[in-house]
Amino acid sequence: MAPNHSPRFLRIVEEARSRVRECTVDDVRARLGRGETLNLVDVREESEFARDHIPGAVHLGKGVIERDIEQRFPDPGTELVLYCGGGYRSALAAENLGRMGYTKVISMDGGYRSWKEKGFPLSSA
Asked: Is residue 14 over pLDDT 60?
C-alpha cells in the first residue's frame, strides 16, 4: 500500500477490502475488450475525473456517492465497478454501497494509476 497514507486509513481500507468483491484492471480491460457494457463509476475527486478517466465512466465522487447513487442507479442489483486512484477509496465506497443494499458492487484494485501505467485508454471528454 502507498506509504503516504496514514496507518488508521490503511487499516479501514484493509478491513473494507476483506468484505468487498475486487477485480483487477486487467479483468475490466478484458471485459470491455469482449464488448461487455460495464457501469464504471469513478469515485475520485471531480478535478481528477475532469483531467482524465476511463472511457465510459460516470463520476460519483467518494464524498457524495452514497447520497447520489440511487438517482443514477436505482436498481440495487445493477453491477457497478468502482475505481479511484489506487483502489482504496473505491473499496470504502463499495463497502458502503453494499450496506445500502447494492449486491453487485466491485472495487477495481489498482485503480486509475494501474490503468494508466498499463497504457490503457483514457478520456478527458
From this structure: yes
Q: Domains of the chain, with CATH numbers?
A: 22-117 (3.40.250.10)
What is the grid cell recorded at 77? 442489483
3-state secondary structure of 5: coil
> Maximum distance among all alpha carbons in the chain?
40
pTM (global) more than 0.90: yes
Closest CA to 39 of 28, 26, 49: 28
End-to-end CA distance of the chain: 30
The three three-digit cell numbers of residue 56, written as one number: 465510459
Residue 1's pLDDT is what? Answer: 44
For 55-124, the DSSP string reads: TT-EE--TTTHHHHHHHH---TTS-EEEE-SSSHHHHHHHHHHHHTT--SEEEEETHHHHHHHTT---B-
